[in-house]
Amino acid sequence: MAYKKVHQFMGSKTQAIVLTIVATVTVLTTGFGVFRPMVAGAQPTPSSLSPAQDPLVEASRNPQLARALQDAYEAAHRGQPGYVQVPPVYLRPNPYPAASLQDYAAPRLAKREPDGYEPNVERLFVESPAMRRVVQVQVQYAKDRSKPAPMLYLLDGAASNDTSSWLTEGKVQQLHQDAQVTVVMPTEARSSNYANWQADDPMLGRMQWETFLTRELPTVLEKEADLKFNGARYLGGASMGAGAAVRLASLYPDRYRGTFGLSGCYSTTSNMGREFLNMIVAAGAGNPHNQWGAGTSAERLRNDVTAHPEGLKNMRVYVFTADGVITPRDRSITAKYGPVGNAAIPSSVVLEKMSNECAHELDDAMRARGMTHQKITYQQGGIHFWSYFAEQLPIAWRHMSQ
């Protein structure tokens, strides 16, 4: 759930159950006896303290934090197919309510127009039979449009709106410096996990992203959009998009040559992976049970990469995660967002602790099946922020495209 400025916070006491994106501060703080509320005017704010004095930094360094999260999620799931509720921090009105959905005979490029964000970025409007609406896709063209180029599908984080965070936060423009690649960035996928949902959600709407991304969109881009395509597709993402990219690449190995995931989760059934995906949905005010059902359904198992990593056997795989320990750089990054940035630090610590565990799960699963070709980067220091994803993008691309 990549860091974005919180659009709206709506919570209640009933939502603060066991552990939430915000309530995980309890695990970070009182759970380990590290943090004590400061009296206004009596002590400096945490951001002005040295690392040795900063209670959040000390909490993030606690080696037992990941284990405590595992135990908390296990307790939350014990004996019931529920999910940990979180405040809907990405709550926005659904721009595509059920009454507006339409039927389309086939995927079609309805129109295209300059994006206005970058001179070499265009916005494509694609009619989707699966989604029953027009899906907007931003395309950053290869630096030399006269020559064939591969396509890199870049998937966004949980807050996905009508402009991809890869453009606003992820510095996708840097790929033009040394890469001949067309970058495809789907938009308006908030809290979707880029999956085919079993039921339409009252708050989030219709979700059939797997079908759209793997079947409909490639047909439009490669046959109608007049792009010079060299036949090579790659799939990558950050946070929510990380798990989805690796999952879809594993499910459709004949369609992709490489995949990367930056700070995501790749299991749909482990305590950590299940809750990471559930949090993404609940943060958008959606019901995770509408995605793959309440229990361990066949569809949930189908989407578990750690249970079936064989699809990754013959493609390049790059995975990045930090360890969730707050660094001085993290403090400087969040400072520019003011109170919102400071409020995001505890949840960003927890999310990166979770993604670190998830990266180990994937690595272990692949190695158990004799795969050692994957490149896993375990960074010391760093939390769940777009600044790290932006740095990793060219590294991931170079690894995949070699």
UniProtKB/TrEMBL annotation:
Protein name (record): Trehalose corynomycolyl transferase D
UniProt KW Acyltransferase keyword: yes
Molecular function GO terms recorded: acyltransferase activity, transferring groups other than amino-acyl groups
EC class name: transferase
UniProt superkingdom: Bacteria
EC number: 2.3.1.-
Listed InterPro entries: AB_hydrolase_fold, Esterase-like, Mycobacterial_A85_antigen
Originating species: Corynebacterium matruchotii
Keyword Acyltransferase: yes
PANTHER family per the UniProt record, alphabetical: DIACYLGLYCEROL ACYLTRANSFERASE_MYCOLYLTRANSFERASE AG85A, ENTEROCHELIN ESTERASE-RELATED
UniProt entry keywords in alphabetical sequence: Acyltransferase, Transferase
